[in-house]
Amino acid sequence: MSGRVALVTGGARGIGLGIARALAADGWDLALVGRRTEADARPALEEIAAGGSEVRYFQCDLADDGERGGLVAELRKCYPAVHLLINNAGVAPAVRADILEAEPESFDRLIGVNLRGPYFLTQAIARWMLEEEAPGRSIVFVTSVSAEAASVNRGDYCISKAGLSMAARLWAVRLAPHGVPVYEVRPGIIATDMTAGVRARYDALLADGLALQARWGQPEDVGKVVAAIARGDLPYSTGAIIPVDGGMSVPRL
Q1: What is the pLDDT of residues 212-248, one digit of tens each?
Q2: Domain boundaries, position 169
Q3: Do residues 14 and 196 touch, judged by C-beta distance below 8 A?
Q4: How far apart (Å, rounded) are the C-alpha atoms in residues 107 and 157?
Q5: Distance of alpha carbon 253 from alpha carbon 237, whole angstroms
Q6: What pLDDT digit, counting tens, does each position of 61-86 carry?
Q7: Domain contains 176
């Protein structure tokens, strides 16, 4: 092991895999968390391990208190410390529904997975970080442009990401006295399996000027930003919101 351990939720696919690849390239050992079975995640694990990093996979539904507690207990058995936490795991609504028609079940699901799970995982990992006082500790919340941009056909998703943005700010304030910086990375339109179903819609929007850089973002675009944070390249920026959206969030007339 390199001695530097990064915990990446949702780390075996999509944006999380892009982050895992970038961290592995910098020599981090990886603890990847996902809801899929280890067999389903095996291709990603083998790819990362082939580069020389130690990688372990932990199956867990972070919205479930018992499973999340079991994850933390297992991590403590496997590692002397976790130096970097990447709160990346998240889900989209099963059905995009106008907020006049949306169902409570979808709202509860998204809040549980996208907000409640990472909030209390951060609580547990932060407590552990403060026990160990390991050098080079940091925490990253991966949110979305939907933390600020309103989409009335997926209000539950927007609210979950807006809440996660505030969670990042809260933890930045709380952990600053202990020397643990916290960052929010805010992706835009990223090409993953989550966005595959709306490819045509966003192709049209990008062609019509949705973002200054008229292309889809890639998981590796997010991974490079997270790797820079992990290296300590932003030492005086705790609490910062870092957009990775091709200029989509730039106000224009």
Answers
A1: 999 999 999 999 999 999 999 999 999 999 999 999 9
A2: 5-189+218-243
A3: no
A4: 8
A5: 29
A6: 999 999 999 999 999 999 999 999 99
A7: yes
3-state class (DSSP) for residue 9: strand
Output the domain CATH number for residue 176.
3.40.50.720
Q: Tell me the two tokens of residue 52.
A: 């020389």
Instruction: Report, as an integer, the average pLDDT of 104-111.
Output: 98
Terminal alpha carbon distance of the chain: 51
Q: How far apart are CA 253 and CA 250, in angstroms?
A: 10
Buried b (16+ CB within 10 A) or exposed e, 140-170: bbbbbbbbeeeeeebbbbbbbbbbbbebbbe
Number of domains in the chain: 1
Centre a 10 Å sphere on the Cβ of residue 102 and count the other Cβ atoms it contains. 18
1 has a pLDDT exceeding 60: no
CB within 8 A of 103, min separation 6: which ones?
Answer: 97
* SS3 annotation, 31-69: EEEECCCHHHHHHHHHHHHHCCCCEEEEECCCCCHHHHH
What's this model's pTM, rounded to 2 decimal places? 0.96
Active-site residues: which are they?
A: 157
Residue 29, domain member (yes or no) = yes
CA angle 63, 218, 184 (to 5 degrees): 50
Using the predicted structure, report yes or no on whether residue 194 has a pLDDT greater than 90. no
Residue 120 has pLDDT above 90, yes or no: yes
Give a yes or no: residue 197 inside a domain: no
Let me know if residue 250 belongs to a domain: no
- Please check whether residue 58 is in contact with residue 32, taking contact to mean a CB–CB distance below 8 angstroms: yes
Name residue, tokens 């949705």: 210
pLDDT tens figures, 10-24: 999 999 999 999 999
